[in-house]
Amino acid sequence: MRDEIRSGHATRERKLAVCAGTASLPANERIELLAILAGDSDEQIRERSANALIEQPVENILNTLAVPDLAPQFFAFCGHYFLEKPGVADALAKHTLCPPELLHVVAPRLSTSGVQFLFDHLELLAGAPGLAAALSHSTSLNAEQRLQLQEIQKNSLEPEAAFAEGAADAEPDREKRTTLLQRLTRMNVVARVQLALKGDKQERSLLIRDPCKVVQRAVLQSPRISEQEIEAFAAISTLSEEVLRQIANNKFLRKNYTITHNLVFNAKTPLDITLHLLPNLTLPDLKGLGMNRNVPDTLRKMAGRLLIQRSVKKNAYED
Q: pTM for the complete prediction?
C-alpha cells in the first residue's frame, strides 16, 4: 500500500482505509501516508487525512521522523503543523532528507543540542545560504555556539600571513604554495569551510591552522581526511589547543595508538587531556615520556609513577 500511495496509484477505497485507520499498517507508515494524502485531489480524502494526522501524538511523529526514506510531503506537513511540538525541530534538522528550505524555518526553533548538530555537520551550515542567519535568531544558542556563528557569518578576508606558518610543509612546491595562499586570501569563512570539507590534503594542512575555529573544525569533519593526516596533526605543537582537544575527544580516533601517543607527547595538548590518555601508553613510551623535558612536569612525574606501578605489577606477575 505504501508504494501504491506514494506512486499515486492507490484506489479511493484504499486511501479512505488509511484515513480511517482500518488498513493494516505500522503506525509510522500510516502517518507518512496521511501526509501524502493531505495533498490528494479528492477533498474528502484531504480533510480526513489532515484531521487524522493533526490528532497524532508527538511521540508518533518523532518515531516517524526516524524512518530514513520519508516522502517529502511529510517534511512539509511537519514544518507547517508540528514545528512547535517538543523535539520535532531537532528531528527534522537531523534527517538527511530534510529539504534545505525547511531547515531555514526549523533553525530558530532548535534546542541547544539541535544547534550543536549543525555545528557538528558544517556541510549543512556552509552549503545552505542564509541558514546561519536564520540560526542566529535561535534563543537556544549557548555562548560558544554564538561565537562560532558570528565567525561563520564573517565576510572579512584573512591576510596571507594567517596561513603562511606551516605552508612549506603543506605544499613543498613554491609555485603551487604561492597559488594556494593567494586563493585562501580571497575566500571568506564560508568558502574556506567548504574547501576544508571538500579540498585535498595540502589544503587541509593549511586550513587546520586557520584563524577561524569553525574552519579548523571543518577540516576534522572532512569526509576525505585520513587517519594518517590526523596522526600528523596530533603531533604539531603549533596547532590550537581547540584542535587538539577535538581530536582527543573523538572516541574513534582515540583507538588509534599513534594519535594517542602524539597527543600525549605534544606539549601543546591540554594537561587534562594528556593525563586522561596517559594510562593508554605502553611501558617504553611511559619511560620516554618520563624523560621528556618538553612536556609539563606534572605529566612527566605521573608517567614516572605509572611506569613504576606497572613495572612492579609486571615483575610480580612474572614471579
A: 0.82
